[in-house]
Fold this sequence. Notes:
Blueprint: H1 5-18, H2 44-62, H3 66-79, H4 84-96, H5 100-113, H6 119-130, H7 134-147, H8 152-164, H9 168-181, H10 186-198, H11 202-215, H12 220-233, H13 236-249, H14 256-263, H15 267-280
Helix pairs in contact: 1-6, 2-3, 3-4, 4-5, 4-6, 5-6, 6-7, 6-8, 7-8, 8-9, 8-10, 9-10, 10-11, 11-12, 12-13, 12-15
Amino acid sequence: xxxxxxxxxxxxxxxxxxxxxxxxxxxxxxxxxxxxxxxxxxxxxxxxxxxxxxxxxxxxxxxxxxxxxxxxxxxxxxxxxxxxxxxxxxxxxxxxxxxxxxxxxxxxxxxxxxxxxxxxxxxxxxxxxxxxxxxxxxxxxxxxxxxxxxxxxxxxxxxxxxxxxxxxxxxxxxxxxxxxxxxxxxxxxxxxxxxxxxxxxxxxxxxxxxxxxxxxxxxxxxxxxxxxxxxxxxxxxxxxxxxxxxxxxxxxxxxxxxxxxxxxxxxxxxxxxxxxxxxxxxxxx
Length: 285
């Protein structure tokens, strides 16, 4: 199976947009763990250093310099060894380098330090999901929902994990809940459309896709899914039109192995895409 680092990174960056990352700098320095060095006394000067490290780490992350970001987070931990947000963010930077197991260690530490905060559970679940550890992912998403029943991302992600197990009806229910909680959550609505297709509600699936494309014409995933769905209905011209748009946005949709193993499209749509690409002569291009 191919490494899912790019897929996981995309999901984590989405989480950074959906979640507030709280850096409690002043007055929250806990006692260092027994195996760690005692951190220096927390002064205004050190607070400034930590703020600078935080900003530098975020800038490095935005530029894709994940190894540098990891170093900044590590330096911040020297001052705030028991800050769960720093551990969680360092885990994110390790994901950017493909170090999945090391990232899980950091998420575990974040959860240990702040068991009532949902962010690290959500990040850890995303990594477990990307590694096809479905039960572990679902357990983390269940915990997020227990802590915050209105967290739409947890329902969406749990739906993805259930789809990974082949339970598309249960996935559909979770996607519906995510949409109800966050009507503008386009990814949840897109996942809902794909799940509808797999459970046999194909006309409703296509209607949902059309509405999404009308609102988000640059939504490559749905453009590609429309291609596969319309090809199966024999609407070749419209399928090809959507394909031109989709492939111009993201060439990975030519790769049906990526679709099945990393993006994890429903099997019915992957099969349709196989047929479309074979017919159009683009399979393997």
